[in-house]
C-alpha cells in the first residue's frame, strides 16, 4: 500500500485555539520577567516549586515528540511491544528516582554538577557540565516542531523550526524556570487530556478490541497475535535489556534533577514523581495503542496508509471533532515545547553556572550570572537549531545523549550522594568522568566510522572479529560496556588519590 | 469487553482525570501566589529526612 502524508484541514475554532495557545505561552514568559531577582529565582524558581507544579513540569518535560510519534510508530509496526519492551522499563526508573529524590533535595545544591564539583573538584565539574550540555541539546524537539508548524501552517520546514524556537526562547529567556514550569503546567494539561480523549474516541469509534484485531489481521493478511504479545513475537530478553539500558538516563536526568533541586521540600519532589509515574505510563500506553489503532483503521479500509511516524496524527484527525483538532495539535506542540524550554534552560545553566563561572569568573556577581544565563539560552537555541538543520536523520542521537550522561555521571554522582562514609578523592572523580566521557565519544566514533546501519535492528552496529569469533556491537552497548571501566577507574582513584583533596566547590554558590 | 479494552479505558481515565485534579490544585496555588505576589522570594525550605 502506498504511504501518504497527513493533510490537516482546520476550522476557525481550531485556528483560534492554536494561536491563543502560542500567544499565551509568550504572555506567561513576559509576566514572569520582573519576578526574577536572583539566579536562584531565575534558574530554580526560588526553590519554591510545589507538588502540582512539579508533576506538571516533570511529566511534560520528559515526554516530547519522540514519545508521541516514536512510541506510536513502534505500535504501528510492532504492536504492544512498543509499550512493554520500550516504555515499561522507564516506569521502573521513575519509581526508583521517586524513592531517591529526597536524598538529592536534602543536599540543597543548585545543580547536580555542584555535587560533582563539591566531591571531586573542577575537572569532574567541567566534564559533567559538558555531558549534561550534550544531553540537553534540543535537536529532536525542534525538528518535530518544525514538522508540525509546516503541517499546520503550510509553511516551509525551516521557517517552522525558526518560529517554534523563537516562541520557546522568548518565554524561557524572559521568565526562567517560573515561566517554564508555568507553561509546562498548561502544556501538561493540554497534552495529556487531549491524548486521553483522543484515545478513547478512536478506540470506541473503531469498535474496540475485536474490530482493531480484525483490522490488523486484514492489514497483515495473517493472524496478528504478535501485535498483542509483549515481546512482539521476536524480541529476546537480551534485546529488550539492550533497549532498556537507555532508561538508566532517568537516574541522572538533568531536567529531573533541576526540578528536584527547585522543589520546595524533599517530600514534594518525591510525591510529585510518584504521582507522575502512572501518568507517564498511561501516556506511553496511549501512544502505542493509537499507533496500533491506526493499522487497524488502514486494514479496515477506512483510511489511507500514513507514514508510520504520522500514524497517531492521522488516526486522531480522522476521529476527533472540529475544535478538538486544534486542541489536539496544541497538545502536540505542547509536548514539544515543554521539553524544548526545559532543556534550553538546563543547558544554559551548564554553560554559565556550571562551566563558565567556576573556570573563568569565580567572582561573577549574581546579577551578571542571571544576565549571562539568559544569553546562554540564546546560544543553546542557536546550536539546537543548527543541528536541526544539519541532521536529516537523527536516529541514534538519543542513544548517544543517554550514553554520555549515564557513563560520565551515574557512578560518581550516586557514590557522592549515597555513599557518605566513602572517602572520596579528586582522582576518583577525575578518572571516572574522563573514562566515561571520552570513552563514550570514542565508542561512538568507532561505531560510526567502522559500523553500519542495520535495517533489521534499526540501529548502528559494528562487527568485531576476536579469536576467530564475530561479535556484533550495537551502539546501545556503550551503556553497559563502558560503566565497568568507569567503576574500575573510580576504584583506582579511591586507592591512589589523596583523601584530603581540596574540593572544587563553586566559590560564589553560598550567595546564590 | 477484553483486557485490552479495559486497559485503554483505564489509560484514558488516568490521562484525563489525573491532570485535571493536578491542574485544579495548581490553580488554587497560583491564585494565592498572584494575590500575594509570591514568586521572587525563596520559600522556607524543609531540610532533613523526608517523611
Describe the protein's topology.
The complex is a heterodimer of chains A (512) and B (51).
Chain A: H1 12-31, H2 39-44, H3 51-62, H4 65-78, H5 81-84, H6 88-106, H7 112-120, H8 122-135, H9 139-153, H10 157-206, H11 208-220, H12 237-244, H13 254-261, H14 266-299, H15 311-319, H16 324-360, H17 366-390, H18 397-418, H19 426-450, E1 452-454, E2 459-466, E3 469-474, H20 478-481, H21 483-496
Antiparallel strand pairs in A: 1-2, 2-3
Chain B: H1 3-36
How far is it from the N-terminal to the C-terminal residue of chain B, by CA? 42 Å
Mean pLDDT of chain A: 88
What share of the residues of chain B lie within helices?
A: 55-70%
Query: What are the secondary-structure elements of chain A, in order, as H or E?
Result: HHHHHHHHHHHHHHHHHHHEEEHH
Rg over C-alpha atoms of chain A, rounded to the nearest angstrom: 23 Å
Main β-sheet of chain A: number of strands, strand sense, barrel status?
Answer: 3 strands, antiparallel
Shape of chain A: globular
As a percent range, the share of strand residues of chain A is: under 5%
Structural class by SSE content of chain B: mainly alpha
H-E order of chain B? H
Total strands of chain A: 3
CA-based gyration radius of chain B: 18 Å
Which pair of protein chains has the largest interface, and what are the residue counts?
Answer: A-B, 51 and 36 residues
The general outline of chain B is rod-shaped
Report the helical percentage of chain A. over 70%
Question: Numbering strands along the chain, what is their spatial order in the largest sheet of chain A?
Answer: 1-2-3
Q: Can you walk me through this structure?
A:
The complex is a heterodimer of chains A (512) and B (51). Helix content of chain A is 71%, strand content 3%. Chain A starts with 11 loop residues before the first helix and ends in a 16-residue tail after the last helix. Chain A is built from 21 helices and three strands. The longest helix of chain A has 50 residues, at 157-206. Chain A is mostly helical. In chain A, β1 and β2 (459-466) form a beta hairpin. In chain A, α8 runs antiparallel to α16, α11 (208-220) packs across α14 and α18 runs parallel beside α21 (483-496). The radius of gyration of chain A is 23 Å and the shape is globular. Chain B is mainly alpha-helical and 51 residues long. Chain B is 67% helix and 0% strand. In chain B, 22% of the residues are buried. Mean pLDDT of chain B is 81; it is low at 42-51. The interface between A and B is large, with 51 and 36 residues.
Amino acid at each position: 500500500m502506498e504511504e501518504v502524508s497527513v493533510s490537516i484541514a482546520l476550522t476557525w475554532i481550531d485556528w483560534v485555539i492554536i494561536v491563543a495557545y502560542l500567544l499565551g505561552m509568550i504572555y506567561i514568559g513576559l509576566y514572569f520577567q520582573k519576578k526574577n531577582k536572583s539566579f536562584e529565582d531565575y534558574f530554580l524558581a526560588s526553590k519554591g516549586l510545589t507538588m502540582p507544579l512539579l508533576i506538571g513540569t516533570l511529566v511534560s518535560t520528559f515526554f516530547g515528540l519522540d514519545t508521541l510519534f516514536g512510541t506510536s510508530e513502534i505500535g504501528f509496526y510492532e504492536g504492544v511491544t512498543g509499550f512493554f519492551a520500550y516504555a515499561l522499563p522507564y516506569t521502573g526508573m521513575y519509581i526508583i528516582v521517586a524513592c531517591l529524590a529526597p536524598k538529592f533535595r536534602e543536599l540543597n545544591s543548585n545543580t547536580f554538577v555542584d555535587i560533582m564539583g563539591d566531591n571531586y573538584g573542577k575537572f569532574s565539574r567541567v566534564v559533567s557540565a559538558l555531558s549534561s550540555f550534550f544531553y540537553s541539546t534540543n535537536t529532536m524537539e525542534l525538528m518535530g516542531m518544525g514538522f508540525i508548524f509546516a503541517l499546520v501552517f503550510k509553511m516551509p520546514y525551516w521557517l517552522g523550526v525558526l518560529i517554534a524556537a523563537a516562541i520557546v526562547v522568548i518565554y524561557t529567556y524572559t521568565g526562567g524556570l517560573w515561566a517554564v514550569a508555568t507553561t509546562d503546567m498548561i502544556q501538561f494539561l493540554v497534552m495529556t487530556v487531549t491524548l486521553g480523549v483522543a484515545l478513547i474516541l478512536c478506540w470506541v469509534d473503531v469498535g474496540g478490541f475485536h474490530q482493531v484485531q480484525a483490522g490488523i489481521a486484514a492489514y497483515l493478511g495473517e493472524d496478528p497475535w504478535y501485535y498483542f504479545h509483549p515481546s512482539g513475537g521476536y524480541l529476546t530478553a537480551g534485546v529488550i535489556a539492550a533497549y532498556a539500558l537507555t532508561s538508566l538516563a532517568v537516574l541522572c536526568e538533568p531536567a529531573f534533577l533541576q526540578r528536584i533541586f527547585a522543589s520546595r521540600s524533599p517530600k514534594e519532589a518525591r510525591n510529585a514523581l510518584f504521582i507522575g509515574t502512572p501518568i507517564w505510563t498511561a501516556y506511553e500506553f496511549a501512544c502505542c495503542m493509537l499507533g496500533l489503532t491506526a493499522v487497524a483503521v488502514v486494514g479496515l479500509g477506512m483510511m489511507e496508509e500514513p507514514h508510520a511516524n504520522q500514524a497517531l496524527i492521522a488516526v486522531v484527525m480522522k476521529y476527533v471533532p472540529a475544535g478538538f483538532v486544534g486542541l489536539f495539535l496544541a497538545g502536540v506542540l505542547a509536548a514539544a515545547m515543554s521539553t524544548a524550554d526545559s532543556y534550553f534552560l538546563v543547558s544554559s545553566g551548564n554553560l554559565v553556572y556550571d562551566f563558565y563561572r567556576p573556570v573563568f569568573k569565580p567572582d561573577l556577581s549574581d546579577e551578571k550570572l542571571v544576565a549571562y544565563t539568559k544569553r546562554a539560552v540564546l546560544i543553546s537555541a542557536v546550536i539546537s537549531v543548527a543541528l536541526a538543520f544539519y541532521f536529516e536523520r537523527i536516529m541514534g542521537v538519543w542513544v548517544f545523549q543517554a550514553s554520555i550522561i549515564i557513563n560520565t555521571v551515574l557512578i560518581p554522582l550516586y557514590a557522592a550522594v549515597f555513599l557518605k562514609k566513602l572517602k572520596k578523592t579528586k582522582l576518583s572523580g577525575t578518572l571516572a568522568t574522563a573514562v566515561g566521557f571520552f570513552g563514550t565519544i570514542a565508542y561512538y566514533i568507532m561505531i560510526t566510522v567502522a559500523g553500519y546501519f542495520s535495517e533489521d535492528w534499526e540501529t548502528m552496529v559494528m562487527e568485531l572479529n576476536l579469536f576467530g569469533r564475530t561479535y556484533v556491537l550495537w551502539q546501545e552497548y556503550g551503556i553497559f560496556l563502558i560503566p565497568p571501566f568507569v567503576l574500575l577507574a573510580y576504584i583506582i582513584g579511591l586507592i591512589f588519590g589523596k583523601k584530603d583533596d581540596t574540593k572544587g566547590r563553586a566559590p560564589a554558590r553560598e550567595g546564590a | 469487553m477484553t483486557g485490552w479494552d479495559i486497559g485503554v479505558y483505564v489509560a484514558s481515565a488516568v490521562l484525563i482525570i489525573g491532570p485535571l485534579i493536578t491542574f485544579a490544585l495548581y490553580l488554587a496555588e497560583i491564585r494565592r501566589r498572584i494575590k500575594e505576589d509570591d514568586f521572587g522570594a525563596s520559600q522556607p525550605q524543609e531540610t532533613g529526612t523526608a517523611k
